[in-house]
Amino acid sequence: MEKKEIDKILLVDAHAHLDELTDLTESLQEAKAAGVHGIVAVGMDVDSNRKVLQIAQTNPGYVYPALGYHPWEIKEEEVDVNLSFIREHVEEGIALGEIGLDYKVKVKKRLQWRVFAELLDMALESDRPVIVHSRFSHRRAFEMVKEKKVNRAVFHWYSGPVDLLDKILSMGYFISATPALAYSPPHREAIQRAPIERILLETDTPVSYQGREARPKDVRVSMEGVAKLKGLELSFVAMQTTANASEFFQIRFCCP
Ligand SMILES: [Zn+2]
CA-to-CA distance for 194 and 152, rounded, in angstroms? Predict the structure, then answer.
C-alpha cells in the first residue's frame, strides 16, 4: 500500500482481549503506527474486567473498556461476584462484552441463559450496547437480545446461518469481521451478505489465525478481507467501519 493511502486509513479494533497480552505497550504502539485510532478492550470475568479498566485508564482516548462475563468463564459459585462487579462498574465501560452463549462449552445452558439475561438487563438499564459471543448458539442468543429489546448489539465474528443474519440485520444489529475471513467460509458468507454499514472490524486479539497470534494492528487484515470480498476501496472500508463503530459505541474515535 502506498504511503498516501496509509495516511487515509483510520481504523477501530472493536474487540480485543488486551488484558491477555504480555507485550501490551509494544502492541499498542504498533497499532497506532498501523492507523488504529481506537481499541475496544473486552472483559471476560472479574480479574479481566479489572485489568481492562486499568488499561483503559492508562490509555485514555485510545483504549475503551467493555465489561463482560464470557460464557467460558461461568462457574455457578462465581456468578454473583461477577455480576455484582459489572453492576457496580457498568458506567465505566462503553459496552457490555464479551457476553453471550456458547453451546460447545460444558457450562449448563440454563445457567448461561440466566447470566446472559441479567447482563442484557444491565445493558438496557445503563444504555450500553452489547458485544455478543454466540458460538453454536446463534439463534438463541439472537432471540434473547431481541426479546429484551436491546437496541445496540454486535454479533461478534458472526459465522452463523444466513437466514438468521437477515433477521439480525433487520433489527439494525451489527456483525463484526475478523482475520478469519481469509479462510472461514461461513464467516466470509456472512460478511459478503451484510451491508458495509452494519459491519465492525475487529481482531479478537490474541486469538491465533492459521497459527499466528493476532494483535490490534491486524485489524488491517480484517479491513483487507472485507475490501476484497466486497470489491471496495480500503480507505472506504476503513472510513465506513470507523463511522459504524462511532455510531455503535457512541464514541468519537479520533486522534490518539
Ligand atoms: Zn473475544
Answer: 16
Span from the CA of 44 to the centroid of ligand 1 (angstroms): 8
Measured distance CA(124)–CA(249) in Å, rounded? 14
Q: What is the pLDDT of residue 256?
A: 42
Asked whether the CA dihedral 5, 18, 142, 251 is positive or negative, the reply is negative
Q: How far is the CA of 99 from the centre of ligand 1 (A)?
A: 9
Rounded to the nearest angstrom, the distance between the alpha carbon of 130 and the centre of ligand 1 is: 13
Cell numbers for 40 = 475496544
Encode pLDDT of 39-92 as tens digits.
Answer: 999 999 999 999 999 999 999 999 999 999 999 999 999 999 999 999 999 999
Whole-structure pTM value:
0.96
Q: What is the pLDDT of residue 5?
A: 55
Q: How far does residue 236's CA lie from ligand 1's centre (Å)?
A: 26
The widest CA-to-CA distance across the chain, in whole angstroms, is 54
% of residues, the chain, pLDDT over 90: 95
Q: What is the mean pLDDT of residues 227-250?
A: 97
- Is residue 68 within 8 A of residue 43, CB to CB? The reply is yes
Give me the DSSP letters along 157-195: T--S-HHHHHHHHHTT-EEEE-GGGGT-HHHHHHHHHS-
213 CA distance to ligand 1 centroid (A)?
13
Pair 177, 204: CB distance under 8 Å:
no
